[in-house]
Amino acid sequence: MNRLIIILVFTTVGLLSQAFAQSTSHQITVDLKKIDSPWSTAWTHFGYDEPNYTYMKDGKKLLSELAALSPVPVYVRVHNLLTTGNGEAALKWGSTNAYTETKRGKPVYNWQLVDSIMDVFVERGMKPVVEIGFMPEALSRKPQPYRHTWQPGVDYNKIYTGWAYPPADYKKWGELVYQWVKHSMERYGKDEVCTWWWEVWNEPNIGYWQGTPEEFNMLYDYAVDGVKRAMPEAKVGGPSSTGPGWNKAADFLRNFLKHCEEGTNYATGKKGSPLDFISFHAKGSPKVMEGHVVMNMATQLNDVAKGFDIVSKSVFKQLPILITEFDPEGCAACGMATNPENAYRNGTMYSSYTAASFTRLYDLAKRYKIYLEGVTSWSFEFEGQPWFYGFRDLATNGVDKPVLNVFRMFGMMKGNRIEVENSHEIALDSILTKGVRKAVDIHALATAADASMALMVWNYHDADVPRAETEVVLNIKNIPAERVMLSHFRIDRDHSNAYEVWKSMGSPQNVNETQFKMLERAGQLELLKSPEWVITDKGHVYISVTLPAQAVSLIKLEYK
């Protein structure tokens, strides 16, 4: 085939010649020989407050979809695994009744509901990040009131009731954890449980812990002792604190690490406490400004940067880090009716924010030379709630939202991360300082394996306002094949977007069977056009992409 025919073929499939590409203002270059690092599957973590949704209809459906996202196991973390109650699910609430006591104070263990939750995960090949909490009513130092009745719009602090208090008896607490791990091994086998992560409590530096920092260290020591007595090989850690970017939160994390290094262990009397991984949380802070939502990625990434910095200066700098909640803001169950700043959640702003923020998170891990093991998106589903209410969820009433399709894109990426050259890239330090408030963030993430490469590219801005689409040329070099199969997946207003289809139906709350099937299909990841064979020019192609505002594309090239 001569040069003229090659150019004609390229033009037909949306590829450009060298001369045309050089005249384009926005170009992203990927050289497959420039390997950055092994591709991180840290994104394969999800979590939610309400554990009893796990075995409900839509919960099981979504967990099956999450399990299918990735070639490696997907991890799940849930709150309330030890909370007392009858298993009824409610917003920011759940229970298992795992621990009660007789009138004489003798412990009674009941693992039925805990097993119902863990069974769903294990049956799907998923791995629990087992959150050891919250405090059973019979153990709580201040048990009443115990169950909260919080609803969106109510003061968030109303949730912190008896379940958030320290135990009246730390030895009973440690024995409860021991019995739990022992039971888990008996039910699922030691080899399986060895693949789990055990995390003590949740956000003990704010209202989730109604004790002192030292009392939390005591809680941690007794919990870890219980885990390790049952299974010395178990991976256990913490402190699962939130907001390392705040001064007091930074101090909490530092002091916890110091206790694990050299403090007197409350359970054993020895020096220090076992720590197999370190966990903390990072959240953004969107606002409504001049009538539209404006995100704040800077706040979220600064939390991460501060946490990484603290760990990198400690004796534990080589340990895995789990960011066990990583989200654009702090309340998954606060919908847009009561919190209009959360209106970003239904559409493509959430998906483009996720693509942009996760990529910068990986960049921060590289900067601080951190072993980033997992990043939990605290987003699941809310059973029996209004359609597209604006919760921070991946699906609504069994229909997937656009953000879930970003994770489907991540699941197609494998091999090694490849360097991306982008003359218009917004520098990481600029995003840490200012967010994405001026220039639009047109950037990309690339991976390559033996017989394929994938390139995710997005058009993101913090402000949710109408913007013109952007023309981008992707310059891919050193493809080890003469021809490739090109597949182009897209999330935008018209693709992979059940929300827009639902609105076009008139935003019904009573969805009929025909409408549901349409919405279900619209929630899946969609090809922009049919896959096609493309001839490379000595291993080199240019791909022209038109990106609408808040759109995300995944270009996948497959070859032998």
From TrEMBL:
In the UniProt record, the signal sequence range is 1-21
Q: Which UniProt keywords apply?
A: Glycosidase, Hydrolase, Signal
- What range(s) does the Glycosyl hydrolases family 39 N-terminal catalytic domain occupy? 96-522
Please verify whether the record's keywords include Hydrolase.
yes
* Pfam families, A to Z: Glyco_hydro_39
| Family from the record | Belongs to the glycosyl hydrolase 39 family.
Which protein are we looking at?
Answer: Beta-xylosidase
Which organism was this protein described from? Ohtaekwangia kribbensis
